[in-house]
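Notes to self after the Tuesday call (sharing in case useful).
The group wants a holo model before anyone commits to mutagenesis around the pocket. I volunteered. Ligand is flavin-adenine dinucleotide. Logging inputs and output together so the record is complete.
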Amino acid sequence: MTRLVIIGGGIAGLSAAYYALIRPDNPPDEVILLEKDDRWGGKITTERVDGFVIEGGPDTFLALKPWGMALARELGLAGRLQGSNPKQKATYILHKGRLHPLPGGLTMMIPTDFGGMLRTGLISWPGKIRMGLDFLLPPAKSPGEESLGRFVSRRLGREAYEALIEPLMSGIYAGDGDQLSLQATFPYLRDLEVKHGGLVRGALAAKRARMKGNGAAPGSRSMFVTPQTGLAELVETLVARLEALGAELRLGVEVRGLEKDSHQYSVFSNRYAVLKADRIILATPAYVTAQLLRPHDPGLAALLDAIPYASTATISLAYRLADVPRPLDGYGYVIPRREGRQALACTWTSTKFPHRAPEGMVLLRVFVGRAGQEEAIDWTEEGLLDIAREELRLTLGVTAEPLLHRVFIWPRAMPQYNVGHPARVQHIMAGLARWPGLALAGNAYHGIGIPDCIHSGELAVERISNG
Ligand SMILES: Cc1cc2nc3c(=O)[nH]c(=O)nc-3n(C[C@H](O)[C@H](O)[C@H](O)COP(=O)(O)OP(=O)(O)OC[C@H]3O[C@@H](n4cnc5c(N)ncnc54)[C@H](O)[C@@H]3O)c2cc1C
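Result:
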């Protein structure tokens, strides 16, 4: 009789439970999933209220990474996935307080349409000329592990980095591009430089390959999808499937300690004196995992604790269409760090997904908080609402009272894959050799997107099944 205990009921822990239960060979006899909150899904949470579909955390996942689509298909959700509105795809960037359309022809977020780049008001003429140097500069021989900021500035110039690339790329991590590791976040960009001699040349080659149908270049087909009633549908369907497969699902259980003897693990929590386990998967944030392992393995705990996290918040606000002076003719806008705003981005949710607001209403979602700028933010619900409303007033001219609002605060939510992250993760994985039958899953290690987290759960099951 083998018992697998999974700690953490976000998408990584839920996926681990699923892949453990459907294993054709050697599945555990018993799977118990413990979650400290009173709901499943972790960062995935959707509120459906008065005809609005409001996402508190993620709102889509990337279809190009196979693991999200694969799980959706297995759960019978493929037919319920929808892409974002193809009719109004514009994205804007804030520049000196005004919205500028993102130049067309970005491939893997790198500009490949020269006309569009020449016309954009986002970058000065000297900045555009500096971007052109990408065609002349030889690839760096062995630059070592670089930050995203250093790499892009080296190829395209600092201005293009700050005005264009930083808000698009760093925003995904709520991170600081001058700290984020290129290798851990966008490794294919360095491949473009090495293979094609330059970033734009590489992006052009990727675009040509895609147009010829020669296979998809990584990052080139940014197709994001989501279930019709929000991402919680994925969680709800997965939980129902786990119940049908016989998993034991327990909410409100905060794990506070782990012990191992030669045969088994003991799990200590607020609910049970002790729970015995033959195998363990920790699908918790790295700092929680560190806390659980520290008494027995301070070295491993120190490595886990060294992964920094950024806090973030989303504020969704509903208005009458007539209360928004500017046409919401796109998916929204991103805000470069150098604009000095507390907001990071604003999604025009009801344009991106038209059915997510009733007729005549609009739904907007403001993101607040990014690495290195968190101290200046008032993290109370009222403080965040004020920041969001001020952002909408300044940029869109919205002064009306919102019809409804929802604030979701995510303390220490976004792991920062800073320079040094790949080596640290390698050491963490090597340190697990001291913990037979135990594996880690979740967004702290090999990818923060939902498909990566699903994959991490699957790989954790592989590890405990083979070790
Ligand atoms: C605002 C926001 C927007 C995002 N947007 C996108 C997006 O559009 N697309 C995308 O792909 N990704 C997006 N992400 C990233 C993605 O949502 C996350 O990386 C992913 O959901 C994390 O899943 P996880 O299972 O690793 O962790 P979590 O969801 O954090 O789950 C960990 C779980 O462990 C539980 N736990 C912690 N400690 C204990 C304990 N001691 N005992 C028991 N349980 C415990 C927690 O309560 C939590 O439920 C976004 C993230 C945020 C915050």
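Two things stood out.
The pocket of flavin-adenine dinucleotide is lined by residues 7-13, 34-37, 42-44, 57-61, 254-255, 283-285, 288, 312, 314, 410, 413-414, 442-443, 448-450, 453 (CB under 6 Å).
Confidence is low (pLDDT under 50) at residues 215-222.
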